[in-house]
Design a protein that fits this description.
Strand order of the largest sheet: 1-2-4-3
Structural class: alpha+beta
CATH class: Alpha Beta
Strand content: 35-45%
Largest sheet: 4 strands, mixed
Number of domains: 1
Oligomer: single chain
Helix content: 25-40%
Order of helices and strands: EHEHEE
CATH architecture: 2-Layer Sandwich
């Protein structure tokens, strides 16, 4: 069954965000990382890292906040 989960990634660093994703994301799930205001360009850093690790990733801007939508390609 497909699930969608939202994780507040605004206060997480990149390493803990990636650990959170690997713990939470199953093959049929979608994870939305709510990055917030994108201080220090963390949206781009997280996005680039996830792409290189083989995740299907999209950046969005919703309700004044940056979000990264992650699905598992596996």
């Amino acid at each position: 069954m497909d699930k969608e989960k939202i994780v507040n990634a605004e206060s997480l660093n990149i390493d803990s965000t990636l650990e959170e994703i690997s713990n939470e994301l199953k093959s049929t799930d979608t994870l939305i990382l709510d990055v917030g205001n994108n201080y220090f360009n963390q949206t781009d850093k997280i996005y680039d890292t996830l792409i290189t690790r083989g995740y299907d990733v999209r950046k969005t801007f919703k309700n004044g906040r940056y979000q990264i939508i992650v699905t598992n390609r596996k």
